[in-house]
């Protein structure tokens, strides 16, 4: 496979609203990001992915875009953006933007036109339908943010489709003119000098013609329309067309956020010969702790399922496509709370999880705060949560008679605001994020967990991430080596990577007591480990301490 710059890159995701506030309005901003570029340079990352910074009424914190070519007022100006780009490039850091084109804001100029009349030239940019003859909604699909996926618009007495909130009407990709406008917009950003795109729910843009009703799961209020829009009929055609018309002409990184994409789909999306996208974000490993009732029906963590899933992806995409690797983003709970132990073994388990992920094959993504082991938050009341997904879900379930305590616990475990509490820079008020009042409360553990402390401690999670990033930069084995699962006890995840005659063995313990693993290789050459001393070896056995990670190398 031809080597690419993004093969050995590590990406750092910034959620600008929660990153660093430079002007005291309680909301992070672009100048705040510029102030922290040296911090990111020290960490050693190659690329920043910026969650949306475009003009938006913020119904879904910027994932509802009003103007694709203007900067959100709270975040600064286009001049600040150009400064950020220049300053990042001056440090050798690339910038990837979010591309949100499954839907726009209902305040976008296209939608303002579209809703005016049935014969408006922009009408067909969105998906409009009349009610059925019996007065029911055009189909039975539910919105991903609760309620039906249809909203009545009085002006023309028709409904528009919104897979997400009412303020996020879906764009109609069947319309060629719309597609061309999107490609031209992408090209203008690339000409401005950005280095690629993370493409929001991009595998939802093609819907089954006729928008048929979907199956309704037992106990569900609406049909799961996903069967008619996830990896829809024209998706590969659209991505190829987009690639040809825009980013395919530039040496940039493209990553498609793709809920419901299997390994077979991912091979099609990322096979370099097909010219679609470079890599996809799968959701399979993020869904392992969801029960039949979905995201809020939380199951206990099951390491075996994780091993099976990662192994399936590592093996399937080897030499056929390209993986992305992530534990966290702005939609997911904090990994140290989810799959580790965020109290007794916070530091050990955060480093172990980092080892596991960063030595796999693929492009790793670090989400802001992960590099200091930030944890989930447990606000006491639902009013303290800001996220539209949480709020809508709460309203719907309370109306159905759900138990508030149990539901609040599910929010503590899975809510998106776990990832969105502001970055804890130091032990000062509001963790040094703002001199004003933060838009979302800071996690109360900021005095103990913060960047300043991490930078002072040579054994911190931060410096461990830095080492892992360096290993990827220095060893082709980490980038291109072949993966194999090693059979071990239940609480251990062990795998090897082999490249040009050299093999690395990665052992990660999820146990809270000592666990002995058999090894069939030399154990003297340790590449990295998360304890200060090497584990005890007894004749082809290694005793791993709680949440220990250790990597051996043999030639
Ligand atoms: C996926 C994004 O990551 C999420 O934050 C957003 O709410 C939805 N897409 C809708 O844009």
Automatic annotation (TrEMBL):
**What residue intervals traverse the membrane?**
none
Biological-process GO terms, alphabetical: oligosaccharide catabolic process
By its UniProt entry, which Gene3D superfamilies does this protein fall under? Glycosidases, Golgi alpha-mannosidase II, Oligo-1,6-glucosidase, Domain 2
How is this protein named in the record?
oligo-1,6-glucosidase
Residues of the signal peptide = none
Q: Which NCBIfam families match?
A: PRK10933.1
Where in the numbering of this chain does the Glycosyl hydrolase family 13 catalytic domain appear?
13-420
Give the Enzyme Commission number. Answer: 3.2.1.10
């Amino acid at each position: 496979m031809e080597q690419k710059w993004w093969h050995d890159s590590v990406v750092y995701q910034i959620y600008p609203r929660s990153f660093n506030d430079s002007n005291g309005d309680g909301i992070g901003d672009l100048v705040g990001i510029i102030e922290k570029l040296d911090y990111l340079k020290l960490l050693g990352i190659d690329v920043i992915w910026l969650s949306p910074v475009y003009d938006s009424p913020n119904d879904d914190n910027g994932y509802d875009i009003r103007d694709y070519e203007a900067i959100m007022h709270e975040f600064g100006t286009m001049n600040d953006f150009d400064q950020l780009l220049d300053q990042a490039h001056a440090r050798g850091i690339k910038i990837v933007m979010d591309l949100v084109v499954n839907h726009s804001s209902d305040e976008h100029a296209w939608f303002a036109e579209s809703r005016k009349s049935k014969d408006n030239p922009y009408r067909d940019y969105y998906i409009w339908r009349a009610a059925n003859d019996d007065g029911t909604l055009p189909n039975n699909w539910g919105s991903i943010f609760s309620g039906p996926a249809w909203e009545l618009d009085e002006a023309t007495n028709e409904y528009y489709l919104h897979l997400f909130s009412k303020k996020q009407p879906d764009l109609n990709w069947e319309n060629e003119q719309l597609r061309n406008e999107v490609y031209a917009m992408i090209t203008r950003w690339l000409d401005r000098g950005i280095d690629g795109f993370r493409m929001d729910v991009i595998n939802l843009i093609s819907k089954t013609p006729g928008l048929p009703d979907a199956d309704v799961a037992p106990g569900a209020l609406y049909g799961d329309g996903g069967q008619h829009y996830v990896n829809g009929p024209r998706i590969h055609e659209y991505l190829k067309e987009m690639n040809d018309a825009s980013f395919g002409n530039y040496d940039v990184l493209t990553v498609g956020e793709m809920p419901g994409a299997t390994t077979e789909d991912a091979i099609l999306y990322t096979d370099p010969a097909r010219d679609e996208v470079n890599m996809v974000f799968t959701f399979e490993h993020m869904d392992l702790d969801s029960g039949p009732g979905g995201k809020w029906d939380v199951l206990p963590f099951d390491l075996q399922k994780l091993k099976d899933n990662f192994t399936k992806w590592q093996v399937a995409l080897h030499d056929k496509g390209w993986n992305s690797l992530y534990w966290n983003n702005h939609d997911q709970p904090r990994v140290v709370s989810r799959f580790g132990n965020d109290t007794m073994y916070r530091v050990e388990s955060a480093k172990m999880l980092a080892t596991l992920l960063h030595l796999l094959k693929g492009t790793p993504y670090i989400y802001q705060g992960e590099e200091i082991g930030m944890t989930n938050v447990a606000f006491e009341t639902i009013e303290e949560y800001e996220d539209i997904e949480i709020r809508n879900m709460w309203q719907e379930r309370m109306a159905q008679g759900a138990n508030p305590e149990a539901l609040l616990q599910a929010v503590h475990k899975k809510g998106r605001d776990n990832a969105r509490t502001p970055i804890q820079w130091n032990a000062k008020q509001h963790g040094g994020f703002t001199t004003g009042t933060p838009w979302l409360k800071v996690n109360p553990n900021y005095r103990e967990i913060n960047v300043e402390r991490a930078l002072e401690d040579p054994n911190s999670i931060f410096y461990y991430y830095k080492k892992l990033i360096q290993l990827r930069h220095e060893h082709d084995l980490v980038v291109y080596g072949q993966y194999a699962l090693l059979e071990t006890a239940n609480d251990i995840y062990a795998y090897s990577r082999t490249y040009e005659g050299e093999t690395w063995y990665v052992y990660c313990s999820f146990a809270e007591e000592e666990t002995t693993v058999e090894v069939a290789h030399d154990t003297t050459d340790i590449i990295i480990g998360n304890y200060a001393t090497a584990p005890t070896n007894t004749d082809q056995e290694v005793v791993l301490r709680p949440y220990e990670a250790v990597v051996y190398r043999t030639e």
